[in-house]
Amino acid sequence: MERLEDKIVLITGAAGSVGAAVAEAVEKAGGTAVTTDIAGRHGVAHVLDVTSEHDWERVIAAVAKDHDRLDGLVNAAGLAVLGSIEDTDYATWKQILAVNLDGTFLGCKYALSLLKRNGGSIVNVSSVAGLIGGHNFAAYNASKGGVRLLSKSVALHGARLDPKVRCNSIHPAFLEGPMVDTILKQTDFPDAARARLTRDIPLGRFGTPAEVADLCVYLLSDESRFVTGAELAIDGGLTAR
Ligand SMILES: NC(=O)c1ccc[n+]([C@@H]2O[C@H](COP(=O)([O-])OP(=O)(O)OC[C@H]3O[C@@H](n4cnc5c(N)ncnc54)[C@H](O)[C@@H]3O)[C@@H](O)[C@H]2O)c1
Q1: CATH classification for the domain delimited by 8-172+209-234, as one of 3.30.420.40, 3.40.50.720, 3.40.50.2300, 3.90.25.10
Q2: Is the pTM of this model over 0.90?
């Protein structure tokens, strides 16, 4: 039997690096990936702006109609921006919190109606920035730290349900892909910044979206049936010291 055989998994931000890698890994493990992203992003099945309650209602209704079940949710949509408390304006703060934290809240809330029918697993993609702070990561730190504890509350609620719904947060360090490239471009010396970030990681390299996707498959599968409310760092050892 394949690891995700017969499992329907909804993925947000699925046109992005991590979301696309998760969708590919879910299908490879025998599951069905229901891919979503904002309008204008190609290659996904549904338009879903994670900050829109209306979009969540519409997409969850479509999943119920098409599959009559939902077994997993991966909240991978996200935005990152550099900025200290002094140079982050309020509009930017609200945008980052809206996508990263409100979007994860809405995803957990609306998907639960289907997940709790047969039991299921939620994976919230936080970041190492949800575990440790950075002087120029005020909004991102706050949003990803919020995802970390929201996930524990959802896990404790899901543990009281019958059948049970599990929920965990995952905390990647820097990954190869456009998000880190965009952040590095906001620094004065991108090449030096990349070298410094690489030196900070004990394993000596950035991670890959495929490695994050492998962790998601584990958390979505029944192999992780006793894992809930956990915060799993996938960071090459960055937060070990
Ligand atoms: N890339 C990294 O180094 C890294 C490290 C740690 C955590 N993360 C987290 O992993 C997740 C995925 O990041 P990624 O590297 O794939 O970034 P990415 O930029 O490649 O993809 C993010 C996706 O989110 C989508 N998105 C943005 N706003 C949205 C909205 N309102 N509604 C729905 N979708 C929206 C974008 O269209 C994009 O497809 C994010 O939550 C990010 O914070 C990334």
Answers
A1: 3.40.50.720
A2: yes
Q: Nearest CA to 168 among 231, 85, 74?
A: 231
Testing ligand 1's pocket by substitution, the residue of 52, 79, 131, 171 carrying the most ligand atoms inside 8 A of its CB is 79
**Which ligand 1 atom is the nearest neighbour of the CA of 80?**
43
Catalytic annotation present for 140: yes
- Encoding tokens for residue 117? 């029918």
User: Is the pLDDT higher at 140 or at 1?
Assistant: 140
Q: What is the DSSP track for 211-223? A: HHHHHHHHHHSGG
Q: List pLDDT tens digits, range 64-73.
A: 999 999 999 9
For the chain, what are the domain ranges?
8-172+209-234, 177-206
Which of 90, 110, 140, 218 does the annotation list as catalytic? 140
